[in-house]
Structure formats: structure tokens, C-alpha cells
Write a structure and sequence with these properties.
Radius of gyration: 20 Å
Number of helices: 5
Helix content: over 70%
Number of strands: 0
Strand content: under 5%
Distance between the termini: 16 Å
Largest sheet: none
Order of helices and strands: HHHHH
Oligomer: single chain
Structural class: mainly alpha
Amino acid sequence: MEKHLKLLSVLYIVYGSLHLLGGMVAWVFIRWSGLAHGFNSGEAPGRFLLSSGIVAVLVIFFVLVSAAGIIGAIGLLNRKRWARIVLLVLSFLNLIHFPFGTALGAYGIWVLMKDETDGLFQQSPASVPQQGDSSGR
């Protein structure tokens, strides 16, 4: 189960990083499109401001969720109990993001809900057996 926790952490870091990158690109696009629009085209600028404001709120939400996934994954690597809860919540939320989020969410729920995983969080990180360690410590 140790390998699954490490893999899940890496997957959440990669997934969250890609979403952060997408959020930054979307933010730049919002800012650029506002400048490109120029507000001199004769259209009502209020409609543009409303739609860009809604998109900006969505971008901020997705960036915050992505950052929570990265922070949770780092905490999971360090065997923090709070990280397990954070990633469980995010795994359930990711189920609606078909297809990659669904796969990551299902895998995260499977890994984090196992009884063997719970046992890993009750030990200190130093006492978790390392791969290839034949001493049993």
C-alpha cells in the first residue's frame, strides 16, 4: 500500500500542477481579452465585465482546489492524517471531472479507504518499512 500512497501523491501533484497551469493561462486570457475588447466596440461593457467576472471566480476556485490537492499530496507523502481527509474530499469531487478526474478520484478513494492505509497513518514515517528493507523496521 506504500507504493499506492506514493503514486497517488505524485498523481495529485501532477494533476494539480496541470490545473494550476491551466488556471494561469485562463487568467491571462481573461485579462488579455478584456484589453483586446477595448470597450469601444459599441457593445455594452457590463455584459463583458459580468461574464469575465464569472469566469474569474471559476478560475480562482479551480486554482484553490488545485493548490489544495498539491498541498494534500505533499502532506500525504509525509503521512499527515489531515492530508488523507483532504485528498478523500478532493477524490470525491474529482469523480465528476471525466475522464482523468474520475480515474484519479476512484483510485484515490480506493487507496485512502483501505484498512492497510489507515495503519500507515498510525505509524510514524520513520517506522514505515521502506521498499527493499529486509530488516522489517
